[in-house]
């Protein structure tokens, strides 16, 4: 024999070292023997054709698990061409995947079915390979029982690590291993009863005196999955008679027999020894049960001999004690029987199928995609081998699986469901480098909910889609996804809190549990997959980006610009007014507006750009408006970062159009729509919120009155380390950079042994201003020249008590400072007042800070009680500071936390001992009648009221633009800067007093929820009086808006009160100073028409439009579109007074008593003339210029003088807030009135100016009724009018 080369000697030495280290010594007759080096080398030479594989190196299991991070394979006996062909065939199945990379490693080890866990030997039905360094799971396509505990050389294998780097992978044994030692011989002759003789043993009870063990043989017809119940693992197999189709079950439950599951092959014949007959307690079903001494052998007709039944079975069997553990299956696995379905329920087909795994849909849910078209569901079986081998590229054979076509409307694949009677056989391993994703061994919420609620396949697939979306959306906010998906009965997680109520509503608890034994053993198959009904999802919880798209689609579905305007009004509008009325509209959607019903889920955050509340997930954000049903503002700072569920809400879609419609006739032509955008936000009540995951532990039941602290007490004290923890991500704004300077300021005076302490101070909010761009420059920033404006807001507060120092373990929520206020007295009020400046990250507290609220600032990781005083500075330089009572400014630091305590109205009497401290708080909020009163003297006003109407109008030409120049640079405003929003506010719907508020479009990006029907608290509005003596308010930089209550659900389609009939009044009840009275109704007599004007004007410049063109020629107007307009001024009386009524457009025809056809013909005649005007009964100059030669004018003059015009009418009106002549107070005068043949005298005041809103003809019967009704309610109307 030739001397080995140096390379071979080095290889042999490495082999000796490996075998000595990794392989245990063989147990011989005289004790342990040295490691079998020669036997291993003999196997290697035999596999390599006599040569040693010098290109390969040995590797231990430990080294393989720790050094190999990527999937790999090793083929000891293959050539390079053979490997390339093997890899090419694998890549052909899935072209987008690459083949396993080849490594040159040698694996030698023992096959075993046992593993060590907590120093105990466990048998779980899985196979393992082990050596001295470790143990690893392995999967084999072919296995023999005699291989157990034998040493093998593995010539071809693949190592598949887990995607989780901290967990071990497993081995796929591609070809049969080569034994290092020779196998032992098997017995030659075994007495076996023929199956025809074994069948009666399970069918009849034979009397006996003692138990007997049996040996039976048959063809394996069905192999059940491994099941583990109450820490007991077992499986069923079914042998078929050789001469008939009769099956008899065998229960295998002994640990040393679980490896049979890997060697059994369908269609093969086997012999099983040492069986007993047992029966189930509940159903009485009989079966064979293996014993400790039972053996599984291949059936060979020459090696068996017949044994009579009488000798094999001498008596009646009794249930074995070991079977009782398996009997717990029904109770431990909380499954129920499928309910009876309607007649439309389809029966699923049972088929067999062979396919290739092309994608893992969801390994935790047991869903795999076969051949890119069929979904395999293994959730109804227990995957005790953790789905090892089921990687993309693997081939599987499915036997007796249920075919369910379209079980879920939204599910795109046909489903093959494996029940407990199905068999899943792995035919070949994947050749691709695809990762291994093991399902969760514990806390698998998919399977827990499936079994607990006994879900059918359609409902389970819907559950999977909901959980997948849930995990994808919110796992990034709460660290590991197991935080959401793990489940415990005492502490359910967010996903379980969300889904369990839905499942309980859809699948009520059933009295009967799922009978596992009946499902496996019954002759007529019954299982949850047997019946299938296509399910329409009961609800949906899409991502917020999908919610935005769905809301956008809903808002534009069937939308047309003509829907926003009444045709009678639109035909008289000019171009500017028409397009302005179309520029801003809204629609509201509820959960029921979507199919299926839409549930909102999101993490409550504060926008870093707009400082508004919003719901957030991984995909997008959704601004939100939150209120309380009792009218108190939303101030729960503890909810920041919490995961919320909302089912009752209003999804508001604000639509913004930029249009160029020449006139109303082109409204159906969408070519004139230049741009359309939307803004989506949601509004809901806090009482309709379900907290799925609290930001700081469990939200207490008393959250409405007392919030838990939002303080993060962590070691280290720096903001960076605090925000890096998953638990602290909820309080993190979009800007991840910490303000180090602020952190340093807050930590001044902090001692090293009190790093977990904090300082807090209680305060009362007395005034709050809006969020605006301001030129705040803090003292340390220098003179601030050249610096840009920064978004900020300020609030005036009243300190209550002194700063408090709290330890880590104490509760900061007790407002003990309120007891100290009684000692300060009235003299100390001014020095406790401060002006808080919020900038930067502290803007997140803007939506939580409200008037008359008690809050607490918490400075974490601080022990300096003077931290608030040290940061204060005068609002103006000291040389200009003339009053010592001027409050000091305190910039709120980014690291401070705000905690809402309570409201003034909730304080007890002893907590308000110092009433003088709160003096004047109730006077800061005025009522609408007070604001409208002539005696009101304030310039800044605050009041609350309900929005009656919201309209968009042009900005005043004399508006000051200095302030808005900076605002126009801000992003987010979807309205043009030359627009102004007018809000008509009243105390309540139908109240007499209405005040108008004008808000420039540049402010609207910070204002949401301004919808008709909403109750709003306006603060610091500027009160103004127009030249017509009308009181109105404007929104300025210091103004602020708070939503007190949301509109009614659902929102009214028209402004509040429009559908109500106005009250009947007398003209004498109306006073000239009641300029803010909403619409009313009078029963009056039309005395005469004073002026009448019909004209055809240019839609662009309002000049006279004549003969199809605009008459303006300097400069020349390019418009080719005219608009019809009409106006009339009439005199009416009701016996108590007289009034001028201004009528416009369609109301003129009603006043003249013309039909639609007559009115249309009249206006067509005006088109050729451009304008026709008449006047009657007024001095020259007060009416219109009359053209005496015009025939149309003559017709109109005769019509106005006709006695047919003078008739009783029912007039809806409002007071003209811009009359041509302002009436001065004058004494009452006597005036003669005539009613039919009767003449009477009445005292009347000055003639009022009214605006016509509607005109109705009155029949004689209705006239009598309305007269009596008016007289009956006249006293009430007078009170209402003068209130």
TrEMBL record:
Record field: compositional bias (Polar residues): 739-752
GO CC annotations on file: CST complex
InterPro entries: CTC1, CTC1-like
UniProt-annotated stretches for the region Disordered: 703-752
DNA-binding keyword on record: yes
GO biological process, one term: positive regulation of DNA replication
Any GO MF annotation of the entry: telomeric DNA binding
UniProt keyword list: Chromosome, DNA-binding, Nucleus, Telomere
Subcellular location: Chromosome, Telomere; Nucleus
Biased composition regions of type Basic and acidic residues, renumbered to the chain: 726-738
Family that this chain belongs to: Belongs to the CTC1 family.
Protein name: CST complex subunit CTC1
